[in-house]
Amino acid sequence: MTELLVGTKKGLFVLDGAPADGFEVTARAFAGEPVEYAMRDPSTGRALATVTSPFYGPKIWFTDDPSGDWQQAEGIALPAGGDAALERIWVIVGDGNGTLYAGGDPGVLFSSTDGGASWELCRTLWEHPTRPDWQPGGGGLCLHSIVPWPGEPDRLALGLSAVGVWLTEDGTRTWRHGNGGLSARYLPDDAPEDTMTLCVHDMVRAPRRPERMFMQFHGGVFRSDDAGESWTEVGGGLPSDFGFPLVVDPADPDSAYVIPLSGDFDRVTPEGRVAVYETRDAGATWTARGNGLPARDAYLTVLRQAFDRAGEGETLELYFGATSGDVFGSGDAGASWHTAAAHLPPVYSVRASETTG
Q1: Does 204 fall in a domain?
Q2: What is the pLDDT of residue 193?
Q3: What b-and-e string marks burial along 22-55, b requiring 16 or more CB atoms within 10 Å of the CB?
Q4: Considering its fold, how many domains does the chain have in total?
Q5: What CATH number is associated with residue 198?
Q6: Per-residue buried b or exposed e for 191-222, using 16+ beta carbons within 10 Å of the residue's own CB
Q7: Which regions in the chain score pLDDT beneath 50?
Q8: How many CB atoms sit inside 10 A of residue 151's CB?
Q9: Domain residue limits at 134
Q10: How are strands ordered across the β-sheet holding 88-94?
């Protein structure tokens, strides 16, 4: 069985089921409120959700049972006395060693060591001397990608729009850029080589070869083989170099999946055909996987947190949601697809986890 936590414009939806049997909505929380992101902490089984209240701003909530009561976490706030406002919490990620990280706008990182009940602001990133030069992307100054290194809790990579890649190897005490090889077509030709105006859309690591990373950029899909220090474009076989989400198969560091959109000028699936593109050779070639997905007149938008997987290798399941309110799933690594849910509010995030039920 698989559980899907689906964050939407109008609340959190919990879906339970299996690719062969279908899914049903088993719970709903935060009705009417935007749920940017929700996930299960694999270390504890606790569910966490980020909710942007129009009255109280962004908060993190947690529970052991998504169909029951939720508790509000403490510490999700910026230092008093400043001009900046906390706009949104984009993502929550566990490092597998007891620490949770949350990233948000304006380019902030929080950490928790008590299962998400309380959080602390990462001051070294908040007070970084380059921060006055950081520029927001179209969706704000988003810290949306947090990429731990398996088994090495001091190593972390971050992706920010539109500031690029930040790396730490000393437990967030110091930071350095990892922008080598990235170039943006939206910048003028005379832009400096060390520019930080680099709009990363999503960034993931291959667990079994952690120095291998993939990135969906604002114009290009890139691969790094040196833990994010430098990047090589590998999206030449795709119908478009623009998109938001990206998933890797944990069993195969050469495997990745993306969902291209027409471009930054038209952020919908190309020619009204929905397809997930797969590479099994680290980006040298890409193959469309769309059997069962809408093949005509389907102009969908899939956001960066709305694509996820459960399992790996031969048991890899893939799931994504669209702003149309549809959620699609595959139980055979993308070879065939089914509709897991329809007519939900616009989908902001999808996170899958295997259950024992």
Answers
A1: yes
A2: 64
A3: ebeeebbbbeebbbbbbbbbeeeebbbbbbbeee
A4: 1
A5: 2.130.10.10
A6: eeeebbbbbbbbbbbbbeebebbbbbbbbbbb
A7: none
A8: 11
A9: 34-311
A10: 88-94, 100-105, 108-112, 120-121
